[in-house]
Design brief:
five-stranded antiparallel beta sheet, Beta-Lactamase, alpha+beta, elongated, Rossmann fold
Length: 630
C-alpha cells in the first residue's frame, strides 16, 4: 500500500470526525466514518454541508472565511445538527488545503470531551498514589504522538520544553520560521539557541524569560514584543504563549506556541506612516489655507503696479523677463516702495502661481526662533515644542518664499539658508530626516548688503546666491509723475474701505503732493490719503498740513517729462531723511512706534525707522520730555 493509501485509511478510521468541505459548492468532498456517525447519515444519504448547520449557518460561514484567509482556525462555540435534528455542540479545527478552496474540518463533541477529561482526571488521581511518576520524556512523546496531525497542519510554530528548558519536540512550522531543524533543537536549550538576546542585542537572562517563568509559577504567559533569532542571525519579531504542562500534579515543562509577526508589524508601520503623512498633509493644507485667506483679505491683493513713468515701465519689463524662470530675485529699495508688491507680481506671473506665496518678515522673528521658523521642528525639539511644526520652506514647496528684510537674518543661520538654496534640502530642528523641497526665493531688503558684507554682517556667497536677478524698487521721489495715478488709486480704495463716496482730489492738491519729499515713499502717500479721507468734511482732500509736519518740501526730481531742477544728491537726501526723523522725534516726544509715533507719522515701519536711527547714532530717549523733581 502506498503512503497516500495509508493516509486515506488513517483518516477513514480516525476516532475524530474528519471531513473535507468545499464552501463554494457547499459539498462534502470527503467524510470519514466518525463524521458520518456524528451527522447520523450514510455516504449515500449525505447531503449538502449547510443542511447540518441549522441556525448557526452564519457562524460557520464566518469561521470558514477565517480559515480560508488565515490558513487555520479553531472554535468551540459551533453546533452541528444531525439528520434527526439533534444539536451537537462541537470543538472544530479547520485547515485550508493546498487547492486553496477546500477545508479540512476536525470535529469533536464537546460533551464527550468533557466526559473523557473527567475520566482522565479520575484515573490520574488513582495512579497518583499507586503508579508513581512517569518519565517526563514520555509525557512529551505522548503529546507529540497524540497531536501529530495538528502539529503538522497548523501554521504557527509549536515546541515543547521540559523543566530544564531543553527542547522535547518541534513542529514543521517552527522549523520553517526559525531555520533550526528538529535535530538541531531536540535535547538542547531553546533559550540559548534562539531566545538569548533582546532586539538591541543585549543579553536576555534566562531568569527574566517569561517562557521559563512558566516552569516556576505554573501560569500562562503571553508576550507580543520580543524576538526569536533565526539560525542565520536574523531577528524575528514574534508573539507567543507559554503554557505550563502538569503531569500527576507535577509541573514538568511547557508548550510554546508562537507566530512570526514581522509582516504584520511592517503593515502597521506602513499604516502609521500613511496616517502621519495624511496628518502632515492636513496640517499643511490648513496652514496654506490660512495664508490664502490672508492674501484674499489683504488690501494689496492685486498684481497691478500703478504708474506710467519710465522707472515703472522698466520695472514691469524686468518682472516680465524674470517671472517665467526659477531664478532667485533680490529686490532692493527703501522702505515703503512696494517691494512686496513686486514679489507678488513676479509670483503671479510665474509657473508657480497655483502654489502659495509664503511671506517671512525676517525683522519680526526672534533671533532664537529663526531656524524653527524657516525649517520647522519635531515634537520635543526644544522647550515649548509640544507639537511638530512645518517650517516656511516646507510650506512653500512648489511655490515661492518671499524673505522680506533679508538683511536681518542672523549670520549664524545664513550658512544653513545657503545650503537650502543650493541643495533644496533641509532638516527640521531636532530631526535627522533630510527633506527635499522645490522653492523659489525672492528676497527684499532696504539695507546695503555689500556694506554689510564688508563689515562681516552678511555672507558674500549667500548674497550672490540671492542676487541672481537684482531688481531695484524705485523710491517715490524718482517717479513724481506717477503721484497723480497713485493718489487716485489710493483714493478709490479708501472710498470703498471707509464707505465715503464722492470725495475729490483737486488738481492744486495733487501739485502739492508732487512737491513733497515723501521720505516714507508709497506707503506714506497711502497713509496720507487715508488720513485725509477720514478728516475730510467738504468732499475734497486737503494736504496743506504736509507743509507743517516738519518734513521738507522740495522741487520735483527731474524725469523725462519734468525739467524743473537737478536730482537731489544721496548725501543731501540722507540729511533730509535725518532731519525729518529728528523733527518727528521732537514732535512725538521720542515715541517711535505705536499710535501717534514717529514711524506712523513718517509712514515707515517701526523696524525701519529704528534701523535708521541706529545707523545715524540717534537715541529716541534723548527726545523724551524731561521730568522735573520738586
Amino acid at each position: 500500500m502506498t503512503s497516500a493509501g495509508f493516509a486515506d485509511e488513517a483518516i477513514e478510521h480516525a476516532s475524530q470526525a474528519m471531513l473535507v468541505v468545499d464552501p463554494q459548492t457547499d459539498s462534502m468532498v470527503r467524510v470519514n466514518a466518525a463524521a458520518l456517525a456524528l451527522l447520523g447519515c450514510s455516504r449515500e444519504s449525505a447531503q449538502r454541508f449547510s443542511h447540518f448547520l441549522g441556525e448557526g449557518l452564519s457562524l460557520w460561514v464566518s469561521f470558514s472565511d477565517e480559515a480560508l484567509t488565515q490558513g487555520q482556525a479553531w472554535s468551540d462555540d459551533l453546533v452541528l445538527v444531525d439528520l434527526s435534528r439533534r444539536q451537537h455542540p462541537v470543538e472544530v479545527s479547520a485547515t485550508a488545503l493546498a487547492d486553496g478552496r477546500s477545508l479540512l474540518f476536525t470535529l469533536q463533541r464537546r460533551d464527550l470531551l468533557e466526559t473523557r477529561r473527567n475520566r482522565s482526571e479520575a484515573r490520574r488521581q488513582h495512579r497518583l498514589g499507586h503508579v508513581g511518576w512517569e518519565r517526563i520524556s514520555q509525557v512529551f512523546e505522548r503529546i507529540e504522538q497524540q497531536n501529530r496531525l495538528i502539529l503538522g497542519a497548523v501554521g504557527e510554530g509549536i515546541y515543547g520544553l521540559d523543566s530544564k528548558g531543553q527542547t522535547t519536540f518541534i513542529n514543521p512550522a517552527a522549523e520553517r520560521i526559525l531555520g533550526w531543524s528538529a535535530a538541531d533543537m531536540v535535547g538542547h536549550d531553546a533559550h540559548q539557541l534562539f531566545h538569548h538576546s533582546h532586539r538591541d542585542g543585549s543579553c536576555f537572562a534566562v531568569q527574566e524569560c517569561p517562557i521559563h517563568a512558566s516552569f516556576s509559577d505554573g501560569q500562562v504567559h503571553r508576550v507580543d514584543h520580543e524576538v526569536f533569532w533565526h539560525k542565520n542571525g536574523e531577528a524575528i519579531a514574534v508573539e507567543y504563549t507559554s503554557t505550563p504542562i502538569f503531569e500527576m500534579g507535577r509541573l514538568v515543562g511547557a508548550v510554546v506556541l508562537f507566530r512570526d509577526i514581522r509582516e504584520r508589524q511592517r503593515a502597521e508601520q506602513r499604516l502609521r506612516e500613511a496616517l502621519n503623512e495624511v496628518e502632515q498633509l492636513k496640517q499643511r493644507l490648513e496652514v496654506e489655507n490660512q495664508y490664502l485667506q490672508e492674501e484674499i483679505k489683504a488690501e494689496r491683493n492685486h498684481h497691478e503696479i500703478v504708474g506710467e513713468s519710465p522707472a515703472v515701465l522698466h520695472l514691469i519689463r524686468q518682472i516680465e523677463l524674470v517671472a517665467p524662470t526659477d531664478a532667485n530675485v533680490l529686490i532692493n529699495g527703501e522702505s515703503g516702495t512696494g517691494k512686496e508688491l513686486i514679489a507678488r507680481a513676479i509670483h503671479a506671473s510665474s509657473r508657480r502661481r497655483d502654489r502659495p506665496l509664503i511671506r517671512v518678515n525676517c525683522a519680526a522673528i526672534p533671533r532664537d526662533l529663526f531656524e524653527s521658523e524657516f525649517f520647522g521642528h519635531v515634537k520635543g525639539a526644544f522647550t515649548g515644542a509640544v507639537n511638530a511644526r512645518m517650517g516656511r520652506f516646507e510650506l512653500a514647496d512648489g511655490g515661492t518664499l518671499f524673505l522680506d528684510e533679508v538683511g536681518e537674518i542672523p549670520l549664524e543661520l545664513q550658512s544653513k539658508l545657503l545650503r537650502v538654496l543650493q541643495d533644496q534640502q533641509f532638516e527640521r530642528v531636532g530631526d535627522n530626516v533630510t527633506r527635499a523641497v522645490d522653492v523659489r526665493v525672492i528676497a527684499a531688503t532696504n539695507r546695503d548688503l555689500r556694506a554689510m558684507i564688508a563689515a562681516g554682517g552678511f555672507r558674500e556667497d549667500l548674497y550672490f546666491r540671492l542676487n541672481v536677478f537684482p531688481v531695484r524698487s524705485v523710491p517715490l521721489r524718482e517717479r513724481i509723475d506717477d503721484i497723480p495715478l497713485l493718489a487716485s488709486h489710493f483714493l478709490r480704495r479708501a472710498s470703498l474701505a471707509f464707505n465715503k463716496t464722492g470725495v475729490r482730489l483737486p488738481l492744486a492738491q495733487v501739485e502739492l503732493l508732487k512737491r513733497y519729499s515723501w521720505p516714507g515713499n508709497i506707503r506714506e502717500l497711502e497713509n496720507v490719503i487715508e488720513r485725509q479721507m477720514i478728516v475730510s468734511q467738504d468732499g475734497r482732500l486737503h494736504f496743506d498740513d504736509l507743509l507743517t509736519t516738519g518734513a521738507r518740501v522740495q522741487a520735483p526730481v527731474r524725469t523725462e517729462s519734468t525739467q524743473a531742477s537737478e536730482p537731489v544728491a544721496d548725501e543731501l537726501l540722507q540729511q533730509q531723511l535725518r532731519a525729518n526723523a529728528l523733527a518727528m522725534l521732537k514732535r512725538t516726544g521720542g515715541k517711535v512706534s505705536g499710535e501717534g509715533g514717529a514711524a506712523q507719522l513718517l509712514g515707515l515701519k517701526p523696524t525701519t525707522l529704528a534701523s535708521r536711527l541706529r545707523k545715524w547714532g540717534i537715541d529716541p530717549r534723548d527726545y523724551k520730555p524731561k521730568r522735573i523733581n520738586l
